[in-house]
Amino acid sequence: MDSIGFETHDHASCIADCIETANAQCKAQGLQFTPVRKRVLEILLQEHRALGAYEILDRLREEGMGSQPPVAYRALDFLVTNGFAHKIERLNAFIACTHPGEDHAPVFMICRKCKSVAEAQTVPTNGQLGQAARDAGFQIERTVVEAEGLCPKCQKADAKCT
Ligand SMILES: [Zn+2]
Ligand SMILES: [Zn+2]
Ligand SMILES: [Zn+2]
Q: What Å distances lie between residue 109 and 31, 36, 69, 78, 117, CA to CA?
């Protein structure tokens, strides 16, 4: 498992790499990586924090890139459909994928305090869930795993207060 959101990493190159990967993938698949779609992905990558559609719309509006909700929704829909971003059901919010271009089953760790989200990869067909599914003769196509708790930073902040 590797996760990015809670660890220190080279954030500038992380944004550039993800944008570059998305750009290359769009080109290869004949998809339009429009300025709005690119900007929404950049906004999502900036903080590794889940953002609601309205927060994204606010940013776009501030930057003069569109003020109509469908603009944000359509861009998010494009990013999610093509695997550049994920929807966090628990928060009804979106986060940039940290492994774009890879076929993966993401698992999210959501900090309930600062709302930062780390993405880890697992293979759901392994482990106990996979075993239970095999026992039941069930074929898993998609799983949603969202764990809620405290990130390392917020745990430290909590320890200071008490
Ligand atoms: Zn980063
Ligand atoms: Zn992902
Ligand atoms: Zn936190």
A: 30, 28, 28, 23, 6
Tokens of 160: 């200071």
Ligand 1 centroid distance, CA of 117 (Å): 11
Residues with CB under 5 Å of ion ligand 2 are: 97, 99, 106
Q: How far is the CA of 3 from the centre of ligand 3 (A)?
A: 15
Query: Which pTM value belongs to this model?
Result: 0.82
**Ligand 1 centre and the CA of 135: distance in Å?**
39
User: Which ligand has the nearest atom to the CA of 6?
Assistant: 3
CA of 134 to the centre of ligand 1 (A): 37
State how far the Cα of 49 lies from the Cα of 131, in Å rounded to an integer.
33
Write 13-19 long-range contacts (CB < 8 A, 24+).
14/45, 14/98, 15/42, 15/45, 15/46, 18/45, 18/84, 18/96, 18/97, 18/98, 18/100, 19/45
Distance, C-alpha 78 to centroid of its chain: 13
**How confident is the model over 69-126, as pLDDT tens digits?**
888 999 999 999 998 999 999 899 999 998 777 777 888 999 999 888 888 877 767 7
